[in-house]
Amino acid sequence: MVLAVQTSYSLGAYGVKSFTGDMVSLSIVRELGPVLTGLMVAGRVGSGITAEIGSMVVTEQVDAIRALAADPVRKLVVPKVVATLIMLPVLTILADAVGILGGLLIAVVNLDQPGAFYLQRVRRAIGFADLFSGLGKSVFFALFIGVVGCYNGLTTRGGASGVGRYTTFTVVAASILILISDFFLTKLFLLF
What are the sequence ranges of the domains in the chain? Predict the structure, then answer.
């Protein structure tokens, strides 16, 4: 909704407020949806993965898994990474839809645009390449979140305080990876 207000204000200076739907939808689908969803999931899920596995390491449950001749990576890491890889694109689609609907609300209420006009502009603006770009980024972000969370969980040391410290490391590292890789992924996806 804020993006729609800011965009309409900026476009209004040039007399093209009608392009608000185009700008909002492209910004959300290509950038804001995947990045903001990735950052929220990194904070919530990445830290949860690290805390769960880290607690298991500190209480020697991971050592017990190894003693039973089971592979902790196969039992703990793979399911968490796969779940993140599946759900982050789904959450990104949901974030995109909510963002576009928020823009619709502002366009109808504040800009006096008909809802059908706004949605028509959105449909025209978003192409397959735009959707592929946003969802492709979310897959990479999910991989970063899952791998960083599991790695920090498995390398946790220092008891309960160590779990908190490594959980913070996960949120910071995953967030930085998301923001840096977003630049390179954007450059890559713009080639197609």
Answer: 20-190
